[in-house]
Amino acid sequence: MGAGSADGGPETSWASFDAALSLWNRVSTNNSRSPEACPEQTAYRCPKTEPGPPSDAVPNLGPNPPQSHLEAFGVEKKSPGAAHREPRPGPESCSRTVEGPVEGGMTALAGPVPRMMRPTLPQNYPRNGFPLEVSTPLGQGRVNQLGGVFINGRPLPNHIRHKIVEMAHHGIRPCVISRQLRVSHGCVSKILCRYQETGSIRPGAIGGSKPKQGTTPDVERRIEEYKRENPGMFSWEIRDKLLKDGMCDRNNAPSVSSISRIMRSKFGGKGDEEEDDEEMDKKELEDSDRRAKHSIEGILGDRGT
DNA sequence: AACGTCACGGTTGAC
DNA sequence: AAGTCAACCGTGACG
């Protein structure tokens, strides 16, 4: 599964990030949007999937959930530091349309503007005196519109996720959760939806790429077998044998390099396949080149268009 | 006002 | 070892 970031990764990051929050704490301001407990409480239900999940026990939050994101990190709120930064340039491409002015002093462009080109404020634009970024050992901390701290591209720490789910369990509405924990409502919505659907509060696996079609566990196993039966077998021979045995076809057969990699990981050492790798890679290259030339693109390309 | 959705800029890790 | 790519992230804006 690999993507360990969902498990161990973030914790390490957030550990140092938490420490940095005390720094932020020293310069941050009392948020004018200070969250207020909302009297009306409606249990959250994900519109997509009704049945709630039984698994992934949620820790007890207690009757008085923390008032802010910063407190959720174990940090007190303190006073202002309005470091203003240059807004970054907005997005340039677009697909939907938008009309009218945009919050934050942006003026409307004439006529409908495709949405992706909408003159939005750059993300995390400090419209209420909050600094764009929090100085952290990681140099990645930012503050959202609600005054919450987050690391762009990284999952919220587990305790915040737990709190979100826990509060929802207590019947607190997502909008209130969002304000109290200072997490964007889109994020609260996403986490609760995921929890409803999967029963897990954990973020998904980040990073990595899909294993190539050819290198399925079955194929891997077969490669191991071949190599065990005949240790002197070359990668390209294994590849040929995979094709001959119908384990895969020319389209999804693993490359020679892949086979070598698999063998390296299974058997260690580098063996003789290193050498024939290059040769075979060349062969493959020529092969695909030849194939390409016989494709429509290749033929058209040859005509010089 | 509340909330679902999605583009965006970002991170990550297998290939 | 370095680059690519496709997964994921949370935010912020629209509807």
UniProtKB/TrEMBL annotation:
UniProt-annotated location(s): Nucleus
Bias kind Basic and acidic residues: ranges: 74-89, 280-296
Domain Paired span(s) in chain numbering: 139-266
Compositionally biased spans, kind Pro residues: 50-66
Gene Ontology cellular-component annotations: nucleus
Region (Disordered): 29-115, 253-305
Molecular function terms, GO-annotated: DNA-binding transcription factor activity, RNA polymerase II-specific; RNA polymerase II cis-regulatory region sequence-specific DNA binding
Keywords: Developmental protein, DNA-binding, Homeobox, Nucleus, Paired box, Transcription, Transcription regulation
Family statement: Belongs to the paired homeobox family.
Protein's recorded name: (Atlantic silverside) hypothetical protein
Originating species: Menidia menidia
